[in-house]
Amino acid sequence: MNKRIEKLREIMLNLQADYVVLGPNSDCFYLTSFREEQMERPLLLIISPDRVFFLAPKLYEEQISALGFDVVSYPDGSDPFSYLDLKSRKNIYLDDWLPTLHSLSIVERYSPAKVGRASQLISPLRAKKDEEEINTLREAVRLTEKLLEHVLPAIREGITELQLSNTMRREAEELGTEGMSFQPIVTSGPNTSKPHMRSTERRLRNGDPLVLDFGIRWKGYASDMTRTFFLSQPSQEMMNVYNVVKEAQANAENYINPNVRACDVDSAARTVINKSGFGHYFIHRTGHGIGIDVHEPPYISSDNCLPLISGNVFTVEPGIYIPGKFGVRIEDMAYLLDAGGVFNSFTREMVIV
Prior knowledge:
Elements: H1 3-15, E1 19-22, H2 26-32, E2 44-48, E3 51-57, H3 61-65, E4 70-74, E5 91-94, H4 100-110, E6 114-117, H5 119-127, H6 131-151, H7 161-174, E7 185-188, E8 209-214, E9 217-218, E10 221-222, E11 225-230, H8 236-254, H9 262-276, E12 287-289, E13 296-300, E14 313-316, E15 319-322, E16 326-329, E17 332-336, E18 340-342, E19 351-352
Parallel strand pairs: 1-5, 3-4, 5-6, 11-19
Antiparallel strand pairs: 1-2, 2-3, 7-8, 8-11, 9-10, 12-13, 14-17, 15-16, 17-18
Helix pairs in contact: 6-7, 8-9
């Protein structure tokens, strides 16, 4: 049995967890390297102290068996849960993202003594990246920055945000990646004041700020970076805001060291922005963990005062957003090993396209 599953079983023993039931999502991928979309037919990974197996539609049997795991398969038209032989009145930890349809079917059939969240057991394991994961994420960032270099020549007055987003997708495929890790955020002009707005048909104009927030997927892992560019010379107000965000990000990244708390890194960025007078325009946390999922623990926020640990990988992405006018965000992927560091090498200096 692989080391990750064995570590999970140790945690299960400590928490008296009889079963962990996962859908075919990122936790399943972390433990088995298998990932698939969850559909109306249940496809589940079940882990107990003495057995690991998949419950799966017959059409997945060969595919999963090739990975070396036992498969309890069922044909179409049957009751899938009649094949799932779990003991009643046990402690079951369910995948946080399992469809309610499947969760209720398990709870109703087996009347567990306790129902818990599987993330309580697995998130601590995933938050501590091993050497292979660190190297994979480092390469993902390298490819992300290479993608940005390919996209920069396409930035020009008159192109739409959507056209630029589509250019990103094509370039990601040309680079041989597994595609974008999320739908790119490409906003320009006043749209940049909306942190998570997606691409529109708005055409880029002379004097616009341009926010590009994007990432790629590489060997099952995600990247995430943001840079804010300007089409021609920005206004004095835009330059001031950009410099404040740049300073806030640098201050937070310099603060990353062993045993520093996540909330302290958030505070290091927030203090700079507060002192500048823009504090009420910094409307989100400073960062989030990243790995198989784009957003995962640890979260770099004011309410997470747990210490960062060796193996953590997370974003540092302060921003200032002035409604109806413009916004600026700069984002890197940082890590903590013996000391803090940043994977990104692309300049944080102001770039006028």
